[in-house]
Design goal:
single chain, 73 residues, elongated
């Protein structure tokens, strides 16, 4: 009897996704410092709400939308 293959560990799955993104041309920046005053600029641009200005996930999404504005059409 053949035993079933074990599921990949979470670390192996993260590495697989990382390699896949790299093959697709993505560049990952794990930590980005946000300078003083930049959150206010994101709020003024409508990319972030004042309510979410301490939520790191909301800030990341606002930064992604900001950078998307510079991508080619």
């Amino acid at each position: 009897m053949i035993s079933p293959r074990p599921l990949p560990s979470p670390a192996a799955e993260r590495m697989r996704r990382c390699r896949e993104r790299k093959r697709e041309g993505w560049v990952t920046v794990p930590a980005v410092g946000v300078p003083p005053g930049f959150l206010e600029e994101l709020i003024a641009l409508g990319l972030l709400t004042a309510w979410d200005s301490e939520d790191k996930t909301a800030i990341r999404r606002a930064l992604e939308r900001f950078l998307d504005g510079f991508s080619a059409p």
